[in-house]
Amino acid sequence: MSAGARARRAVAECRLIDLHAPGAAGDDPAARSARSVLSERERRRADGFRDPAAAVTYIRARAAVRRTLAGVLGGTAAGVELAAEPGGRPVLPEHPGWYVSWSRSAGVLLVAVRYGGPVGVDVELVRPLGSGARVLGTVYPGAAALGELDDPEAFFSAWTLLEAAVKASGRGLARGGREVRLVRPPGSARCALGGIRGTGGAVWRGRTDRLAVTAAGRGPRATGPNARVMTAVVTRGPSAPPVPLPLPLPLALGVDR
């Protein structure tokens, strides 16, 4: 199927993937299978990790991004050409009009593919965090106008929307964070996207979702059986941002269960 035909059938796709699996990182069959679809540059980066578990998570994430792209665009995961703009936003040189964005936190991957307009995503493990307004204020001057942000629901909705918005605009957090407009609707526990300045009047839309994950990682930000993540998806244009859908790790990596 041509890219144009796929564009008519699937305008956008967004997947949430748990990247952890049982077993020792160095002997993970899924990771070995995933490595085969990576580019040479990605394999070199994986080899540079000192922590084997971190290397496995990176390999799984990149393979899942490639599998998702191949599923939407056609071809093979290994054949997907990924490049980056000067600001770091990923691009698909062989597929004009298609956009991709991904984010990883605590062993959970969020990846979105969209045709016809930019997309940006972010995912964060929801956890207690003191002084939310002060933390957000380091990159977003309007943090005080959003009210109390010590509640994780409020803070992580604002933070993920900000990250997703600067990814969608391609401007980066240091510069683009000042151009994003976040709002706090009256009575709402979450913040919302009000727009992005300096984009020629373009209509930007954002959504946040608090979703359960079941992965069990390691370290202070590892997920547990009752873990929740906040996801944000930002798009430009009239269509609503896609809803993140869970995808089991074996399917994301293209291996047998």
UniProtKB/TrEMBL annotation:
Example GO molecular function: holo-[acyl-carrier-protein] synthase activity
Keyword Transferase: yes
Keywords: Transferase
InterPro entries hit by this protein: 4-PPantetheinyl_Trfase_dom_sf
Keyword Transferase assigned: yes
Name this polypeptide is given: Phosphopantetheinyl transferase-like protein
